Each structure stands twice: as C-alpha cells, then as structure tokens.
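note to self — DONT lose this again. spent like an hour looking for the file last time. sequence + predicted structure for the chain T wanted, 130 res
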Amino acid sequence: MTTSNDQEAVIAANAAFYRAVESLDGDLLDAILAHDEPVRVVHPGWPLVSGRADVKASWERIFDNAGVMQFTIVDPEAYVEGELAWVICTERLTSVQGGRVVEGLVATTNLFRRENGEWRIAHHHGSPVM
C-alpha cells in the first residue's frame, strides 16, 4: 500500500537528486546513488550506461563539461510499489557549456530503490523534447 508519506519521501529524494546534479559534485551524487545493482542511466542523446561506477563516471564527465546546470522540475508525479518508486517529470534545464547558455526540455523518469530505509536513485532516463 502506497502512502502519501512514501510519495512525499520519493519526491524529496528526487529533489535531492537534482540538487546533487546542480552542484556538479560527484561526491554529492555518490551519496544518493543506489549501492545495489542494477544502476543505470540514459542521458539525453546517450546510449544506456550500466553499472554504478560507470554511471557515476558518466555524470562526472558531464560535470567536467558544464559550468552551470540548473533544473526546474515540472509536474513531478511519484509512484511507489514496495521497495521501488519512480518519478515522472519534465526537466527545464539551463546549462552553460563551452561558455554558451543552453536551454532545453527533457522528459524524464527517475527510478528509486529503498536501501536501508532511504530512497536512492537506481535509474535515470532523460529524453529531449524537441
């Protein structure tokens, strides 16, 4: 049975994920990334990245090439089924890459797994909205 507390906790975990990404800090991201496999990510325009170490490295590569990443999360919807939860939302992303401001919309699904009582991100899938 899903409770509003579960959904609120997942929405909070989703917000923590975006704060970590906005910080451009691999250690902050590491703190909320799931420890148990599988861990996956599909960045907009990228192929599937599998495995915790490779997922973390992919984010760090993005962080190294971004001067700023700011997200406005639109209409997040959280769903909880036992130890798994997902958030469907739209990201309004503003970033600085190569000294240039880039803006875009990304349709996103974030999958969380409860590990030791905490919701940790296990899969992030972002698809650009044209």
